[in-house]
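User: Please predict the structure of the protein below. I'd like the answer in structure-token form so I can feed it into my own downstream comparison script.

Assistant: Understood. Taking the following sequence of 203 residues as input:
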Amino acid sequence: MKSLHLIIVLFLICNTSFSQEITKEMLEKRDAKIDSLRKIDFLNYNYKYLDKNFKIKIPKEIYEKTVIDYKFYPERINKYKDSLGVVLMAEFKDWDAVRISENRINYQWKRVGHHIWMSENEVLELAKKLNVKMPYRLQELFQNNDPKVASEIQELRNKLFLKFKKEELNTMPSKQLLLFAFTNNPEIIELKNNYHKQKAKKN
């Protein structure tokens, strides 16, 4: 009886270890896939079903087949953003590629402002000055610490240091700085708080 119990315990240990290895391998493959997708310039991609201005040009039968094959809800497809998700799925046939490309195409000037602590009008003025047409292109300049926005990045550091008094803000890499700014943006904090309040009322 003891021998049987020992065998069962050993089996469970081995099985758990094997499962953990499989999970780790799957996560590493997924991370590698996501990293690869993020390197694609989806704003300068040669799309089959979008023109250079991201207007939809997909045949009706392919669009409808994609809705069925990937279980989109037709009643929820009301705006360009909804249809774009279907079109990108027809293009890539991959949910991760759809999510990343859709995020970049639909990126908003206001969202850029949340990262760099500027109003939407200030962001639009900056984009005009730099001749940037797409919101995510402007976001990329900040993420990549581009010299074109060096003064704006320094201004952001100054604003954040003045408010939070954290020395690391003076040397923090641009991507990390933007994340810190977004997370601690008073407007974002207020939006999150309101969301949780509304969710609590429903429950």
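That's the full token string. The chain is about 70% helix and 0% strand.
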